[in-house]
Amino acid sequence: MEITSAEFVISNTDVKKCPAGTFPEYAFIGRSNVGKSSLINMLTGRKSLAMTSATPGKTLLINHFLINKSWYIVDLPGYGYAKRGQKMQAQLKRIIEEYILERAQMTNLFLLIDARHAPQAIDMEFLEWLGEHGVPFSIVFTKADKLNKGQLAANLRLYLERLREQWEELPPYFVTSSENKNGRKELLDYIELINKELTT
Ligand code: GTP
Ligand code: MG
Fold this sequence. Notes:
Blueprint: E1 6-12, E2 25-30, H1 36-44, E3 62-67, E4 71-75, H2 86-102, E5 106-114, H3 121-132, E6 137-142, H4 149-166, E7 173-175, H5 184-199
Parallel strand pairs: 2-4, 2-5, 5-6, 6-7
Antiparallel strand pairs: 1-3, 3-4
The protein binds guanosine-5'-triphosphate and magnesium ion.
Residues 32-38, 52-54, 56-59, 77-78, 142-143, 145-146, 177-179 line the site of guanosine-5'-triphosphate (GTP).
């Protein structure tokens, strides 16, 4: 799929104030600093559409970006950034959960996982929560450029093994790098496929 237009629409803490209408939405979630905003910029080919930072905790709102005037990318705050303090973390958790559970337009959630790390408890718990609530999701491994081929393959194997313990059927997954654009085509094709299914 070609991205012909990408524009920022609105930032929110309240799911009720998200854009009206029925355009499908693809939301990006994952631990703080995992690379959500960078991935959105990579996918859209717009360097600073979503705000990124080397310091965790950059995205604190639900951000809607209108793509090709027909669907949305949604940048969500990261979870699990301990330095934020409990009150802030609880508030972000509420924003994220409300959006995921209440937003009817939310078509697929991309859960981002840093390809460099072994499975982390916080992500496993989040996955479990998605399963309990029947949320449609896929997994996106990020920062693949930071590993060599062998390390990447080993980490993926470990992760998929771990997922199989929890899930009868593996969710779709993608391996990406916002640095060298790996996985861009696969992800956009996947979104295009779902968009097509929705209109037929
Ligand atoms: P929060 O909004 O704080 O939750 O973070 P985020 O998940 O949106 O992460 P962000 O995109 O801001 O990226 C965090 C840091 O990781 C930045 O310094 C990025 O440059 C870096 N980064 C993100 N993706 C990649 C990648 O694919 N490869 C490399 N090498 N660095 C990346
Ligand atoms: Mg961000």
